[in-house]
Amino acid sequence: MKKILKEFKEFISKGNVIDLAVGMIIGSAFTAIVSSLVSDIFTPILGFLIPDGGFSAFNGIGPGFNFGNFINAIITFFITALCLFIVVKAINALRSIKKKEEKPAEPTTKICPYCMSEINIKAVKCPCCTSDLDK
Known about the structure:
By secondary structure, this protein is mostly helical. It contains four helices and two strands. Helices cover 63% and strands 4% of the residues. A hairpin with a 6-residue loop joins strand 1 (109-111) and strand 2 (118-120). It is rod-shaped and about 95 Å long.
């Protein structure tokens, strides 16, 4: 069970999953902007241009335009984007702290300059080509 939880944690903390979540949330907020643009701006214009059409509830140019709803959708989008930006910055900061804590392992092998084979770092003679190695 612990192994599954560890794998799930690694899966969730991958950048791809977080990027996908951010994209979905931004897409949802942008959908609100587009829906407001269509229903609050474009639909009343079409209702004004089509007399006695399918827009019978439209009572003139004044009350049909809901610019306030559209502006509210834009503000909501930018607030959502700002919050996600802060969350992603915090996640990236935590990732960089974790990476700084992990020190790279000391090398245990080196390359022979004569035959280019990989040998032990403490070797003074190459086991492949028997060349003497400088320290």
